[in-house]
Amino acid sequence: MVPFAGWEMPVEYTGIIDEHLAVRTRAGLFDVSHMGQVEIAGRDALRTVQALACNDAARLQVGQAQYSALLTEQGTFIDDILVYRLASSHFLLVVNAAHAARDVAWLLEQAPRFGEAAIVDSSARYALLALQGPAAMEVLQPLTGVPLGEVATYAFAHGEVAGARAMISRTGYSGEDGFEVFVPPASAAGVWQAMLDAGREADVRPCGLGARDTLRLEAAMRLCGQDMDETTTPLEAGLGWIVGWSKESFVGHEPLRAERERGAARRLVGFEMVDAGIARHGHTVSVGGVAGVVTSGTYAPYLKKAIGFTYVPASAAAPGTELEVDIRGRRARARVVPLPFYKRAR
């Protein structure tokens, strides 16, 4: 167990590699109740979300979710978020635990500019359990009357899970199919145990922060605060697709549109090691005399290779470009590869 954003969090249960492979081949269960939840509701809720989050929330039907971000006036990241449309004028934002207090303060400060909408930190109302992997649906279905096969990716439904009131979202942070289940905190332990019991035949494993990190990197999912922050734009991070370019305006839109016009000067790339060694967060990377750092790096258990992210000049972002990583004083060769590193079979 380790302290994380004010929580005590498990790094591993049976081992990071074991848990990682369980999610890739069967299913794994994560307690991600540390994530923050913020609700925005009222007459001008949509207008407020449209102004404060960069993606186009007007495209969401009730019962759908989208990946988005809160940006500074300079078009850089405050946090990456998921936006759920609970009703026509009621939205739920799921934010990162490490940034939750700052996100709520920023939302409360900004929202009055855009009309009448209540901003409520509702994190204490939700526990969040994530069942991820190819067996997730068959494990979860006996515990709920919600027909899970009818819940599309980035959609959600309301019902019960193991007798507890729940919102079931077909989302995740592993690169696999799966579900994130919002339940009242008082029900969380019972629902957790019911999921593990239902998953015994499929050999479902409880999973910790270690496997969550290796899985998301293997699937090329960014970690806010590490792979992008207040010095990074969505275009630099390779996330231009989460920007609602057709919207008239949103916080940070002007510098972002200008950057899109001229092209980002640097880009986040994925690399794999050519020489022996594992690149870790903070290791120095050089390409063509330009130095950078590894933002995320690990050994990918399913792919059986060492991989990572780094920022390079746009001219050096093409797959095949050679990099050098300083691994504890030793220069090791790496090369840029296409993203994602891993993509599940459909």
Summarize the structure.
The chain is α+β, with helices and mostly antiparallel strands and about 350 residues long.
Describe this structure in words.
It is a single chain. This protein has 346 residues and is of the alpha+beta class. The protein has 3 domains: 2-33 and 126-218, Gyrase A, domain 2 (2-Layer Sandwich); 36-121, Aminomethyltransferase beta-barrel domains (Alpha-Beta Plaits), CATH 3.30.70; 240-337, Beta Barrel (Elongation Factor Tu (Ef-tu), domain 3). It has helices at 16-25, 45-52, 100-110, 136-140, 188-198, 209-218, 253-262; strands spanning 2-4, 7-9, 28-31, 36-41, 65-71, 77-87, 90-95, 118-121, 127-132, 156-161, 164-169, 178-183, 205-207, 266-273, 284-287, 290-300, 305-313, 322-327, 330-337. The strands form 4 sheets. The protein has a 6-stranded mixed β-sheet with strand order 10-11-12-9-3-13.
First-last Cα distance = 35 Å
CATH fold assignment of the largest domain: Gyrase A, domain 2
CATH superfamily of the largest domain: Probable tRNA modification gtpase trme, domain 1
- State the CATH class of the largest domain: Alpha Beta
Contiguous uncertain segments of 5+ residues: none
- Secondary structure class reads alpha+beta
Order of helices and strands: EEHEEHEEEHEEHEEEHEHHEEEEEE
Strand order of the largest sheet: 10-11-12-9-3-13
- Based on the structure given, which CATH architecture of the largest domain is correct? 2-Layer Sandwich
